[in-house]
Amino acid sequence: MSKSIAKTPEEIKEMRTACRLAAEVLDYIAPFVQPGTTTLELDRLCREYMEKVQRTTSATLNYAPPGYTPYPASICTSLNHQVCHGIPGNKPLKKGDILNIDVTVITQAGFYGDTSRMFIIGEASILAKRLCQVAYECMWLGIAAVRPGARLGDIGHAIQRHAEGNGFSVVREFCGHGIGRNFHEAPQVLHYGKPGSGEKLESGVIFTIEPMINAGKAGISELPDGWTIITRDRSLSAQWEHTVLVTDSGVEVLTLSADCPPPPKLIAGSLAALAPAPMS
């Protein structure tokens, strides 16, 4: 990918709106994530909310990069050992499952907002809960490394050190990405790396941080549907995602919303800004 380009003030304003709307889809769907519900039903509900309430469209529905068949759903639902890009289906959720729901909306102005959360269905195992928590901490440690003058490798290093320090592994084949008027832009944001390496961050750049953390080894496989990625050893996988803006003084998390879980205690005091600026 080419070097990232800082957004204009007007583009940043539009991205705040897009990211807020993406987060609100997750707020809306959260009460429906219950034992007995299918991910296909969750997909239907999210699509209706986007189209009828928000007047947004899904970026994933019919998304087809070169070599791929069109993605058939409005959200991605990755369950248990599915790493990412899980296609919603008819199998009911059960107690003990863990589920990632990934939402990307497109506003009427043509801007993309992208975010994902983990959901624990009922009472999960100690391992599942710990994995989800560590993955959440990994994302926030990556966010806390964002500031003007920092390097992309600082983000990846913070994530990798925490994941591996807790006995987990980091998926390497997928990464965060710039976002704006396009679904995927520069830069590519690896979730592993060396501090001080990679592109230097500049104020106005917007990208996602979305580490995929496995309970077992880092290896992955693709299912025959051409989209769903699973852990090769069938171990559990967890992912969280926020879209962030590099500001003059640090970082602004654009995909925060009323029902987002709070940042973990281990990054308390290390962020210059958390919430989006007031809408004007």
Topology diagram in text:
Elements: H1 9-29, H2 39-54, E1 57-58, E2 76-79, E3 82-84, E4 98-106, E5 112-120, H3 126-144, H4 152-165, E6 169-170, E7 176-178, E8 185-189, E9 206-209, E10 212-214, E11 220-222, E12 229-231, E13 237-239, E14 242-246, E15 251-253
Antiparallel strand pairs: 1-4, 2-4, 3-12, 4-5, 6-10, 7-8, 9-14, 10-13, 11-12, 14-15
Structure write-up:
The strands form 5 sheets. Strands 1, 2, 4 and 5 form a 4-stranded antiparallel β-sheet that branches. Residues 275-280 have low confidence and may be disordered. Strand 4 and strand 5 form a beta hairpin. The protein is globular, with a radius of gyration of 17 Å. It is built from 4 helices and 15 strands. With 280 residues, it is an alpha+beta fold. The protein has one domain (9-267): Creatinase/methionine aminopeptidase superfamily (Creatine Amidinohydrolase).
Give a short summary of the structure.
The protein is built from four helices and 15 strands. It is of the alpha+beta class and 280 residues long.
